[in-house]
Amino acid sequence: MDVMWAPWRMEYIGSPKPTGCIFCEKPTAGDDPANHIVWRGNHAFVLLNAYPYNNGHLMVAPYKHIANLEDLAPDVTAEMMRLCQDAIRALKRDFNPDGVNMGINLGSAAGAGVKDHLHIHVVPRWNGDTNFMSVITDTRVIPQSLDESYRILHAAFTALRD
């Protein structure tokens, strides 16, 4: 069994939690680049994770504040899956991963950091991407800034629509 260790996420886990919902606040803030919203659909949007497991770690979330997968309307569910497909296409186009993890953590017991607003993680993976820095120093090397990842992935999503 492969284990994906993420000790650098302790910064997120140990930090004070915001009082609002990031998945409700970011899309209404009016500044997609600053909020790293890569793409918008009619019912859902794609954004970069501020505490990524890997470079290019994306999340797909509905605009509607909803916690349970079974409560999503069929058209929202379908669009979220299409956006996940586009996320994988964009990552393959410009990040060349060896694989991709997709996951939904439903509830805090399942590992959800934001338990009341459903979202899907799309994480590019490379062979050997758990390097010695993570193991020895509890430090994760993310070779690209979120702003640079945003620029690349926004262009890739735009190209998918052309």
**Level-2 CATH architecture:** 2-Layer Sandwich
Q: What order do the SSEs take from the amino end to the carboxyl end, as H and E?
A: HHEEEHEEHH
* Helix percentage: 25-40%
Compute the number of helices. Answer: 5
Q: Sketch the major β-sheet.
A: 5 strands, antiparallel
Amino-to-carboxy terminus distance? 40 Å
Question: What is the name of the CATH class?
Answer: Alpha Beta
- Overall geometric form: globular
Question: Which structural category fits the helices and strands?
Answer: alpha+beta
How many E-type strands?
5
Topology:
Elements: H1 10-14, H2 22-25, E1 37-40, E2 44-48, E3 58-62, H3 74-94, E4 99-103, E5 120-125, H4 132-137, H5 146-161
Antiparallel strand pairs: 1-2, 2-3, 3-5, 4-5
Helix pairs in contact: 3-5
Can you walk through the features of this model?
This protein has 162 residues and is α+β, with helices and mostly antiparallel strands. It has one domain: 2-Layer Sandwich (HIT family, subunit A), CATH 3.30.428. 32% of the residues lie in helices and 15% in strands. A 5-stranded antiparallel beta sheet has the order 1-2-3-5-4. Helix 3 (74-94) packs across helix 5. The longest helix is centred in the middle third of the chain and has 21 residues, at 74-94. The relative contact order is 0.20. The mean pLDDT is 86.
